[in-house]
Design a protein that fits this description.
Radius of gyration: 31 Å
Number of helices: 28
Protein name: Mannitol operon transcriptional activator
Mean pLDDT: 82
InterPro entries: BglG_antiterminators, HTH_11, PRD, PRD_sf, PTrfase/Anion_transptr, PTS_EIIA_type-2_dom, PTS_EIIB-like_sf, PTS_EIIB_2
Helix content: 40-55%
CATH architecture of the largest domain: 3-Layer(aba) Sandwich
GO molecular function: protein-N(PI)-phosphohistidine-sugar phosphotransferase activity
Distance between the termini: 64 Å
Shape: globular
Structural class: alpha/beta
Keywords: Repeat, Transcription, Transcription regulation, Transferase
Number of domains: 6
Number of strands: 12
GO biological process, one term: regulation of DNA-templated transcription
Length: 695
């Protein structure tokens, strides 16, 4: 089958949105003329003939493919295995970008047009598009008559731009090619016209082994992104496009730098290539900006960020009239997402979210609320819409969970109130878990009933009323009907939640779902983890009063040695080394307080430890904001290297509570053990109520 990229795209669009696309909408979507689309449709009609399919139009000129479903499925299967006979504009622009990044200082426009096989006008349009794209990465594209085209930029920005272009426009192709490589397929040509297949395979295996097999797994998109950046870095370095010698932005004591250094050394051996120290610094930034796959790893040392995120949650809750302030899952998810996200934004790394427009359309009010709250709380960071959309997804997920707690009453109205309506009511409850109760009424009974009692009115016939909203559906409830009902629920979320009629499990008449033996075992383990964590924190709590004349390390040594003597840890020297390494990574003083939170995880620590030392003489330490500050209270938090999800959550709620209010700051800096213990007990009780106790 011979087919062009545009013809393939048109067929795909028509199949996926049957009857919705017209010639004009396709023209607008594909950015071509109406005549071009009409010409392509004639070719498509011939492509459909061998499958006994026809291209037809609805009364509104919507295009759809008419024929048996199995034939349409055959068509889709065939298209999946067909490679278009031409290049897409994105593929040509990628070739153009690679040429500009790898050729000499200037290239004549005519030579570029000949190389790409396009007209001068098309080349000019491509260069305009690339200039806009490259500008995001601080790269200037210069065109001079008689001289040619050239790029002005630092090497690091060129690497970011090239890697990002692959990730934005060829992400699915990258995933497919990596999968085929893992299955043993060999490529004679370069993948996507650039990557060495042998390099990609080795890098994929090594990154998977060193990073994704460890405690923290990267999100799929960031895993692919890291592989692409590593491959681009190696190939650019081999072609003598080197980073500036001064390129050194990361602390070499950081675990991320050490990990990238290990990967780099093994790649040098596997690929017989050279990776510079500057390359390792560059790739460390990419790794630090990567998102983790799940929020189970709580960043319990992110005191400042935790406070800001809590403020955002409270702010959004207030604007939407929904209380999400006790949703620990939402807080934990945002903390795990925003730590690397803010790092990326500060490094000015390009971010792309393919769902941004869809999210803005589906959650317009929520999007505005989140955007406004971020602007209020993070006044030093400019959040682009793509990043706001990612954060909206976290809130959207939390709101969906809260939707399930709202009692939504529906009524099904049909001419007689019996027969097919019972089947319809059963299907509604099966397909739409959001709807708690479904009542069946005849038209006459519905007229006599209290219509305000129902949140949703569904009817199989047109109702003779004009003063109520209702959804007209088929008695058999089609997929389109289900979609309409879901859209209504989503669009009227604010109205439904305003009534505040939450389900109390004690009131629910539904029998509880049977719990499997495996579920019981997991639940018991979680309860055990929570109990042991809270018990350890409270039992091991100790408040010291020291002079602090010898500096904060002297105080730390005394506290760690005391813990070793009590049998709470087995190697004080190792723990001290870990604490020093952690302090080198970044300041541990809490800004606008007199407290410092020193913490680490180590195999020699036997159980959770939280202790406070009140210093007679303040010590000068580096704050979490990078500024020096005076520390009067040293807070020590130690944990085993391997912790369960619940154990991490316990530490997280302690660290984020340190500056949640002026009262909290006063308590933790009071050196009063009874007050601190009472505060911890209150925190634990709130956690138990919101996470384990079902009232």
């Amino acid at each position: 089958m011979f087919i062009t990229s545009r013809e393939k795209s048109i067929i795909d669009l028509i199949v996926r949105t049957s009857g919705k696309h017209t010639v004009h909408s396709l023209s607008s979507f594909l950015d071509v003329s109406v005549r071009t689309v009409q010409r392509d449709l004639k070719s498509i009609e011939k492509i459909l003939q061998p499958f006994d399919l026809e291209l037809n139009r609805t009364a509104n000129d919507g295009l759809f493919i008419d024929g048996k479903n199995e034939q349409i499925f055959r068509l889709i299967q065939n298209l999946a295995g067909v490679h278009p006979t031409d290049e897409t504009p994105e593929e040509r622009k990628l070739r153009l970008l690679i040429i500009l990044l790898h050729e000499g200082p200037s290239i004549k426009k005519q030579a570029l047009a000949n190389e790409l096989g396009v007209s001068s006008a098309t080349l000019t349009a491509y260069l305009d598009d690339l200039a806009d794209w490259l500008n995001k990465f601080s790269i200037t594209l210069i065109r001079k008559r008689g001289v040619g085209v050239k790029l002005i930029a630092e090497e690091a920005n060129k690497r970011h731009a090239l890697a990002s272009y692959f990730l934005v426009y060829f992400y699915e192709e990258l995933i497919e090619n990596l999968y085929l490589l893992e299955q043993g397929k060999e490529w004679k040509e370069k993948i996507l016209g650039y990557f060495s297949s042998s390099y990609l395979l080795v890098i994929d295996k090594l990154v998977n082994q060193k990073i994704n097999k460890g405690q923290t797994r990267l999100a799929d998109s960031d895993y692919i992104g890291l592989i692409v950046h590593i491959c681009v870095t190696i190939q650019r370095t081999q072609n003598h496009f080197l980073l500036e010698k001064e390129y050194k932005q990361e602390n070499e004591a950081d675990s991320e730098f050490q990990l990238m250094k290990t990967i780099g050394e093994e790649l040098e051996g596997e690929l017989s290539t050279s990776i510079t120290n500057s390359d390792i610094h560059f790739l460390t930034i990419i790794l630090k900006g990567s998102k983790v796959q799940a929020a189970d790893v709580a960043y319990y040392d992110s005191v400042l960020l935790g406070k800001l995120i809590k403020n955002v949650i409270q702010d959004v809750s207030h604007m939407l009239n929904v209380d999400l302030s006790d949703d620990f899952s939402l807080f934990q998810g945002l903390l795990a997402h925003m730590e690397p996200s803010i790092f990326r934004l500060k490094q000015q790394l390009e971010l792309f979210n393919p769902l941004t427009e869809e999210i803005k359309g589906k959650y317009p009010v929520l999007f505005m609320a989140v955007k406004k709250s971020l602007e209020n709380e993070f006044d030093d960071i400019d959040f682009p819409e793509d990043e706001v959309a990612f954060i909206v997804l976290h809130f959207g997920s939390a709101l969906l969970m809260h939707e399930e707690k709202v009692r939504i009453n529906a009524v099904v109205v049909c001419p007689t109130g019996i027969g097919a309506s019972k089947m319809l009511a059963s299907r509604i409850q099966k397909e739409l878990a959001e709807i708690t109760n479904v009542e069946i009424l005849s038209i006459k009974d519905f007229q006599l009933a209290n219509q305000h009692h129902f949140d949703l009115v569904i009817s199989t016939v047109r109702l003779p009323f004009t003063d109520i909203d209702y959804i007209l559906v088929s008695p058999l409830l089609s997929e389109k009907d289900i979609g309409f009902i879901k859209d209504y629920l989503q669009n009227n979320l604010e109205k439904l939640t305003r009534k505040k009629r939450y389900i109390n499990p004690k009131e629910s008449q539904d029998p509880p779902l049977p719990v499997s033996r495996h579920d019981v075992k997991e639940l018991l383990q979680e309860i055990k983890d929570v109990h042991s964590s809270m018990d350890a924190i409270l039992e091991n709590l100790h408040v010291y009063r020291t002079q602090g004349n010898g500096g904060h390390f002297k105080v730390l040594e005394e506290m760690v040695d005391q813990a070793e003597q009590e049998g709470l840890l087995t190697n004080a020297a190792n723990v001290m080394q870990q604490l020093k390494v952690r302090e080198k990574k970044g300041g541990l003083g809490i800004p606008n307080t007199n407290m410092g939170l020193f913490h680490c995880r180590d195999d020699s620590v036997q159980e959770l430890i939280f202790r406070v030392s009140h210093l007679g003489t303040p010590c000068k330490v580096k704050g979490m904001d990078g500024q020096e500050m005076q520390m009067k209270n040293l807070l020590l938090m130690l944990a085993p290297e391997n912790m369960s999800k619940r154990e991490q959550e316990i530490l997280s709620i302690i660290s984020t509570s340190l500056i949640e209010s002026d009262v909290a700051m006063m308590i933790f800096s009071s050196s009063n053990k009874a007050m601190i213990r009472k505060k911890l007990e209150d925190l634990f009780l709130d956690y138990l109520k919101n996470n384990l106790i079902k009232e």
